Amino acid sequence: MRLVIMGPPGAGKGTQADGLATRLGIPHISTGDIFRANVTQGTPLGIEAKRYMDAGEYVPDGVTNAMVRDRLSQDDCRPGFLLDGYPRTLEQVGELDEMLKSDGLAVDRAVELTVVVDEVVTRLLKRAQEQGRADDTEDVIRRRLEVYAEQTAPLTAVYESRGILVRVDGMGTVDEVTARLLIALGA
């Protein structure tokens, strides 16, 4: 199964992606992990990405796409994968389509974890306090949620038009959300 998982900050996307990938026997591929691995290994793409990351800038699509293409070409991705944090733009959706099409494949499902904004804000404020993130104020968190919604709406529209978007309630315990995900995916 080839999956894309989306969800706003604080939705538990990473936690759910880890558990879901394990249950489905496919790798959980996080763009953040790919960036860190390439930087740590000192690959040419990692060196280029580090320049942007160190400057606090967005890593350009070309670099991100190349890293994802490389990761998806590895043997453990043959039976499928779960992408977390990619695609983030319409251009990346098109690039992912092209990567898969070259092997006669396509994304099987796009999962969006939905949340109650006020509850997620509370959750993120608590996490910020526990982790000493003074810059994660309520206003900053709410803005990050707005930006996510603005940027993700076009992607969810594409996947919905293809009939592969599944929306799953991301509120509740980890086990409750996992159960809803498995049911929604027919797994």
From TrEMBL:
Keywords: Kinase, Nucleotide-binding, Transferase. InterPro entries: Adenylat/UMP-CMP_kin, Adenylat_kinase_CS, P-loop_NTPase. GO terms for biological process: nucleobase-containing compound metabolic process. PROSITE patterns: ADENYLATE_KINASE. Coiled coil: none annotated. NCBIfam families: PRK00279.1-3, PRK14527.1, PRK14528.1, PRK14531.1, PRK14532.1. GO terms for molecular function: ATP binding; nucleobase-containing compound kinase activity. This is Unannotated protein. It holds the Pfam family ADK. It comes from freshwater metagenome. The lineage of its organism: unclassified sequences, metagenomes, ecological metagenomes.
